[in-house]
Structures are given as structure tokens and as C-alpha cells.
Write a structure and sequence with these properties.
Helix content: under 10%
CATH architecture of one domain: 6 Propeller
Number of strands: 26
Strand order of the largest sheet: 1-26-25-24
Number of helices: 1
CATH class of one domain: Mainly Beta
Strand content: 35-45%
Length: 339
Amino acid sequence: MRLMALRPLSCLAVAFALASCSSLRSPIVPGAKPKDHGAIGATEGPAWHNGSLYFTDGKHINRMGPDGKTTVFRHNASNGLLFDREGRLIACETKNRRVTRTERDGSITVLADRFREKRFNSPNDLCMDSKGRIYFTDPRYGSREGMEIREARPAGITYYLEPTRRLVEGVYRINQTGLPPGLCGFAHEIQNITRILCDGAERPNGILISPDDRFLYIADNNNNTHGGSRKLLRYTLDKNGDVKPGARKVLFDWKDGRGPDGMKMDTAGRIYVAAGTNKPTEYETTQFKAGCYILSPSGKLIEFIPVAPDECCNCAFGGKDGKILFITSGSHLWSVPLR
């Protein structure tokens, strides 16, 4: 029997194989334990920029500088944060029901506060694609009072009772984030906003887009409802950044525990999801403890980083080489070194 000569793998195939292997390996430095930086008002939205970590405490954006000291950077912003390519801070202002950008001179530009003349519910988290477009979630936790955005009227029906139309907790894309020529004196931008998701997710919270703009990840966290969804969902996007029909996939389910919140992705495609709680509530069990759940691209649990004392809300990469994972939980800030 003659043996067939094996063809050498192409460089691309080897690279793909290595990437696939690394995506299933724990990224945590062996023996490393999460470090508690104390109750410094780190509740949500961590974002790293120029040697400092920014996070929110429900009322302010705080900044922890290279010296470890924390100061108030900005008032009246309370949730997800990110820095754009020009180093400007984009923030979800949940209570003000808008998404804003802090300019270098400290002035505030409103990027989104309405959709079809209706105010958003309470923008929660956000991310950016390779084109610089901003995607954000708009859930409503707690009281439903004052919600304005409802599903569209059925086609062909001109008269339809407003209260009978379902309230929408959607996902949106800001298509333009720069001021058109001649309008630089205006504090409010022309809002060019597309709703890319209004069905298939009960209460979208955390949001993430893969580096190739192929996948949209949504932390569907209906955590103040009995039997509500507590799942990490993945959608396939088309070349325009819109969700393809029928492209929804459940990657991980927290069942009756506290569901997923903020999340990030590393270069190997692993997904870092802040989730769980150490204190049961009327609607949540402690089946899934508070911490960061590290998942493979297909949703397999690779590693769990426990934190305390309370629910885990968000995470971000930082440090001088980007290999420190910061986690916000119960106003405490935690960090753990990565490979």
C-alpha cells in the first residue's frame, strides 16, 4: 500500500489552528488571584485610556490615575463608557436618556437622545465597529413610567391605539458621529440613528461587536422578571451593520441566576462576561456567583473569575500592555493579570 504524501499546511491554516487552540485556553496567568482595589465607586462602564481607568458609580464618571488615586472626571453619567479613535469619551447617560461625547475642551455633544422624535428609555451600554459607528442598547430596568418608544403600527392600518403597541427595548446604531461642515457651532448633532434590533431580545444590556464586524453579541438580561431571559446572544451582521434575519444564537444561559451584563472580547475571540450575584433577590438566585465568565467563541465556559461582595456588572482591558482585566462589582474595582 503506497502512502500518500501529506501537503504542508498553509500559513493561514496554521494561524487559524493556533488561534482556535488559544481561544479554548484559559487566559489567566497561572496562580493569579483577583485583586480588590476597594470600594472606590466602581459600579459600571470601565474604560482604559492613556494610563487611567474610567468608571461610573451611578452618578459620576470617576478616573483612577496612574498613582491609584480616584477623582471625579465628570458628573451626570452613569453607565457604559468607551473612548473613540480620537481619544474622546463616549458615555451612556442612563438617567438623562441619551448618549454623549465629552470633547477635549470638556464640552458635551449629544450623539443620541431620540428615535423618531421619541426619547430613549435609558441607554445602558455601547460599543464601536471598525468603521467608527457606535452601537448601544436601550433597556429599561425598574419603573416603566415615561417610556415612549413603541413598535411600529401594522402595515396598512392608519388608526391604531397607541397604548396597545408594544414598548420597545431595542438596540441602535449611530451612523454618524461627526458634525457636518458649517454646523460646528451647534452643541447638538444631527442624529442619524438606525434601530437594528427590536425583537429576539427581551432586555438588551451589554453589547459587543467582533473585530471583523461579523457578529453582534447581546447580553439579554431581564433580571427583574420571573422567568426572564438571562442569556448571551449572538447575531450575524450584514455588510451594512444590520442584523441578518434568523441569525440569532444562544451562546450561554444563566437560567434563574443573575444574567450577563457588560462584556469584552480579546484577540483570540474569547468573550469576558460580567454576570452573577452573591446575594439572592426576589427574581434571582445565586446559582451563578458574581464574577467574570470567560467563554470561547462558541460559548463554552473556559474560566471563571470570582469577585465580591455583590453583583458583577462590567469589565475592561487595561494596563500598559492591555493585559490587565478590570472588573466592576458592588462599587469595588478588581483586577487580574492575563497571559
